[in-house]
Amino acid sequence: MKDDADSTLGSDATSETQTLDSLVARYETENGRRYHAYKAGHYAFPNDELELDRMDFEHHLFLTLLDHSYHSAPLESPQRILDLGTGTGIWAIDMADLYPMASVIGTDLSPVQPSFVPPNLQFQVDDFEREWNYSPSSFDLIHTRLLLASISDYPQLLRRAFKHLKPGGYLEMHDIDPGFYSDDDTIPADSAAAQWSQLFFEGCEKIGHRVPVASEYRTLFQEAGYVDITVRIEKRPTNYKWPKSNKMKEIGAYTLKNHLDGIHGFSIGLFTRALGWSPEEVEVFLIRCREEWQMKSIHAYQKVVFIYGRKPLDAE
Asked: Which Pfam families does the annotation name (predicted)?
């Protein structure tokens, strides 16, 4: 659905933003995985069916972590919602259903979203790191999830979101700290998973996408001008075998499947392009990671960051 209330939507013929029905999907294939061609190389992960299925599965993992809430920011009858890096569009679809009177926009580099969506939802192909073609102070909520390896300039993104939020509107980010942690020192010194996380950080740095750790997000929000910042950090166990509570076992089971299904896509492009590994070296290394993630003796987890902040009412 096009939003006629925003005169900038669809009015600029030179804009790189295009609705999905006008964009011909083009893809590149590398090491058996499919990647987006628009802004090729900007996003290091594939967009093939295997990855899209994993992304939808991870959406349900995040819902479990959030006690089946789609957002944490306190919203009252939002009118406009923007989802950056929407992926399969599953969160945007759920939000459009949850708030049928709101206009919801989901943007991504890949036109992989479904065609049949709620009438108040519009998908666009766009690069959120370029200047946005929306009116300033026009959104009640701007949302991101798992953009950790997609952002070259976090401060700039947060400032840009600030500019386009209504006074009193919220930016909400859900992300992963890719490091692996243990509260009882059960991660071995030669841990493949720990090595993987360091390589992931290094690879992202080399393509110009520095990944924050969990403790950095609050400062990023503060420096961009947000107030009433709320941070929630949840543990995501690497498997279901060692956690004691039923909820942590459930999250561990989801996380294990997510890692086993996703580790090839997370690694093959980044490690071969940025770190100079051969595909064969990546495959052999990932065998060790998969084995380690399934061990009951290693009590490892990742930190999931849920953070939101409000644009002050007196801000422009």
From this structure: Methyltransf_23
